[in-house]
Amino acid sequence: IFEGIASKMSILGLKKKQPKTFKVKVITMDAEMEFSCEVKWKGKDLFDLVCRTVGLRETWFFGLRYTVKDTYAWLKTEKRRKQDNGKKYYSPITFHFLAKFFPEKVEEELVQEITQHLFFLQVKKQILDEEIFCSPEASVLLASYAVQAKYGDYEPNFHKPGFLAQDELLPKRVLMQYQMTADMWEEKITAWYAEHRGIARDEAEMDYLKIAQDLDMYGVSYFAITQNKRDTDLLLGVDAQGLHIYSPNSKLNPNKSFPWSGIRNISYSEKEFTIKPLDKKKDVFKFYSSQLRVNKLILQLCIGNHDLFMRRRKVDSIEVQQMKSQAKEEKARKKVERQILAREKQMREEAERAKEEMERRLFQLQDEARLANEALLRSEETADLLAEKAQIAEEEAKLLAHKAAEAEQERQRIEATALKTKEEKRLMEQKMREAEQLAVKLVEQSERRSKEADHLKQDLTEAKDAERRAKQKLLEITKTSYPVQKTITLTNKSYSYVEKSKHLQDQLKELKSEIESLKLEEQQQQQAGVYSLRNEARGYPPEQPYMPHSNVRTTLHAP
């Protein structure tokens, strides 16, 4: 029905007039958003749209900040955006969605997780940009919580050295203050990071804020002012606790403070601010600010911080109570979920460890099976080899048995031969003794014959001498002409000497031949004895002794 009516209205030219809009870019701490806003919208409409988009319910801490010339301002919720001379805005207007007011105690006032997260991101950026002073020790500790919030629990096998190289975690002032490399800083941060195991992201961010809220410059907005009469340059600090007066060069320790509980009234007229203490005995403090926009901003921050200060001292509204109840339930639910997740993670880790152990055991069993299989193959090969060796050993045993039998036969033969040889040896020794005795006799006979020969030689010499004398005498007789008878007699005597001499020479020759024969026979008998002993030592059967020249006479005739 409505589609039909709309189509008829379009035909009749009765189109609905579209509202005028303009583009707005909103930058949060972790995102950029672009909205199309109607011209008639108030600042509250855009702010509510951004809060709904982000999912934020604790809206009283935040605001939309924009830059005006050389300062900044916060978008007012009850005013509309103005146009200059009715011109349209072609380029988007940029706003930054930031925390405008800070809580006194983050763990009690920040209920939603998104609220905690936005505060965490903003405070971390202010510390890194050195808008909030932080000591090196606290910077390292805060960086470890930031790493825990981003990466979760530390895992040495996953978070290798260098995994923080792309993250900005420490202020440049801290990095320049010490002569340390990026790896050394990462090592220090990782050492603290490893101690945060089991802390969830929202808890790590809350722990970060708990440490940051104790810093001197946390949540303080600074403005340049001058004091009346002396015209002294000072700094005004506005935070959740009250107003603070600082020296221009020191933003850490205030010279004077005015807590919200001790301030009765704050007022300003053009450039003059007046702070009236609750104690009427104390002097009124006045200061001056040269810029009107800055004065309005100071008053706006004073009013908002004072309202929140008073609100904290009252009973929470129904909305806040509901949010806290829901947040409590949500935290309890998340705690249970984290516990369940932790148990599941633990069970998964145990299962993975059990799996790894089973895989390790499986690999071990596979290795053992492989080794057993190899051992079995080696055993089979060894068994075959042993069987072959056994067969060879059996054949060798048979061969050895056969050889043993042959050896036994040989032993018996040798024993028999030894017995025979022993008898032959005894006979040989007896023959050798007889031969030695014979040789001794022959030697004795030889010596005796030598002596006889010597006698014969002596007799021969004497005969030759007698012959020579006879010849000489014969010559003498011849010369003196003896009678013939005497000559014949002498001639017969000489002849008989000559015959005797020849006979002696023949006997000497025969004796010499017999002596040489006896010596040769003795040598042959000794050699035959040596040959017999050698043959007997080698196991050869004894032979008959070699007796050369058996026909030589062994007796000598008397001369």
Walk me through the structure:
Its main location: membrane. This is NF2, moesin-ezrin-radixin like (MERLIN) tumor suppressor b. GO terms for molecular function: actin binding. The protein contains eleven helices and twelve strands. It is of the alpha+beta class and 559 residues long. Among the domains are: 79 residues, Phosphatidylinositol 3-kinase Catalytic Subunit, Chain A, domain 1 (Ubiquitin-like (UB roll), Roll); 101 residues, Acyl-CoA Binding Protein (Up-down Bundle); 94 residues, Roll (PH-domain like). The strands form two sheets. A seven-stranded antiparallel β-sheet has the order 9-8-7-6-12-11-10, covered by helices on one side. A five-stranded mixed β-sheet has the order 2-1-5-3-4, sandwiched between helices. The longest helix has 163 residues. It is rod-shaped, with a radius of gyration of 73 Å. The C terminus is likely disordered.
Q: Which strand-content bin applies to the residues? A: 5-15%
Low-confidence stretches: 83-90, 543-559
Mean pLDDT across all amino acids: 80
Number of strands: 12
Radius of gyration of CA atoms, rounded to a whole number: 73 Å
Shape: rod-shaped
CATH fold descriptor of the domain at 113-213:
Acyl-CoA Binding Protein
Main beta sheet: 7 strands, antiparallel
Binding site for a 1,2-diacyl-sn-glycero-3-phospho-(1D-myo-inositol): 76-79, 296
Keywords: Cell membrane, Membrane
Region (Disordered): 446-465, 524-559
Membrane topology: Peripheral membrane protein
